[in-house]
Each structure stands twice: as C-alpha cells, then as structure tokens.
Design brief:
The structure is a single chain. The chain has 151 residues and is α/β, with parallel strands linked by helices. It contains four helices and six strands.
Length: 151
Amino acid sequence: MEFKDKVVYIISREDWGEMLMSKQHYAIELAKAGNIVYFINHPDLRRQLRRGQIEITATKYENLFAVKHRMMHPYFFKFKYKKLYYFLTSFHISRIIKKTGRKPDVVWLFDIGNSLPLKYFPAGARKIYMPVDGPFKTESPESRSKPNTWP
C-alpha cells in the first residue's frame, strides 16, 4: 500500500508537542509525502478541555493536524465498567471522525493502553497496531511473586 493521498490517523499516548518522538516523525514524513495526517493525543485526563470537547489545530507542518479531546464519560470506566467504556468510546471516535470531516484510510495505533480501540474505527480503514507507548511498569507481575535472589 502506497502512503500517498491518504487520510491517516495516528493515535498516541504521548501528546503532540515540541519534543518529537518516533510517532511524531512518522506523522511529519507521512504529511510530507502528500497525506493528510491527524495526530490524535491521548484523551485529556487533566480536565483542560470540557467533557466531550474535541479540538483540531494545525501544526507547523502542512497537512498535519493535532487532535486534543476529552471524552464525555470518565476514563476510569475503562477499568470498572469495560463494556460501557467501549460502548461510549465508539461514539466518541465517531465524533472525532465527524469533527475532522474525513474518514481515515489508515489508523495507526501506538497506544498499548488501547484507549481508542481500532475496532471502533471504520471497517474500510487499514489498521496498524504498533504497541510502543506505555504505560510501562518497572517490574513484571511474575517478578513480584519470586523471592529476591540477589546476594
């Protein structure tokens, strides 16, 4: 698949900013190649936006936009009421698509936390899952059950 004249959504746990990580570089290069790219930040948990608010801003790169958003429903639903969280999140994703005015041809998910699940994006879109964004823990669950073997 050639990445040209496509609408690409990149979803990351790391927000768009001045410090560029690999996924921001992918976004820049895809935009330079003639695609329209929407870099979708992790849902706003700091309450900087109103509930349900979606902001799309142009970046300094042509055809590259940053998307800030806050869900209508609390984020903790993801852990306590998983089915309800995903049901409500599917509507939130629809609202993001409507706000951009463009259905994605490609959805590239870097968020291992799966805050915006790929299955709720349009069926015709190519979906890429590249789990490189946290949350990361310093120890694995297995290591907690083992006694310390260091001298």
